[in-house]
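Table S2 (continued). Query chain:
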Amino acid sequence: MTGAVAEKSTDHSVVSVTANVNLEAGRGPAVASMLAVPETYHLSQEAHDRLAAEHENLVTHGRTDIARKIQAARELGDLKENGDYHAAKEEQGKMEGRINHLAALLLDAEIVEVDGNATVQAGSVVTILHEGDDSPEIYLIGSIEERREDLEVMSPGSPLGAALIGRAVGDVVDFAAPGGILKVEIVDIGS
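Corresponding output:
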């Protein structure tokens, strides 16, 4: 890399990185651009506690259980053609990925409490009606880790999620979708 410039937005939510890279001798620099994920994750206390318990369980019991599976599979003989061993190692890799994801998420988590139902905020349950549609849709605004069985989750960083944040019942908001600009009306806000 011949040079890099990093910029952080004033609201600290997005980091933009631009790098000049010489790909081959004799060619000019190529410019790469990348947007990083938000630095903080907004979680309810309930979701934070659930994720912390899952992390603790995986680090303690999960690692012990997978170590036993790997040891039992090793005792079966030749590792090159041992399906049990390869399955246990794959399960271990997935579990370690989940442990790392949870650790990073919990490290950067911010506990949010929904303050009434006056405006849409992280943790709100919002009912919206798309322009020209008769059936309302209900979403939980927040991290995918907040998911509930009965609700779809919408990221506050998505175009529609960002447009809804801070708005009240009766507001009509525009947002950019792949098919063009769409409008939705906020019908209800709950928690």
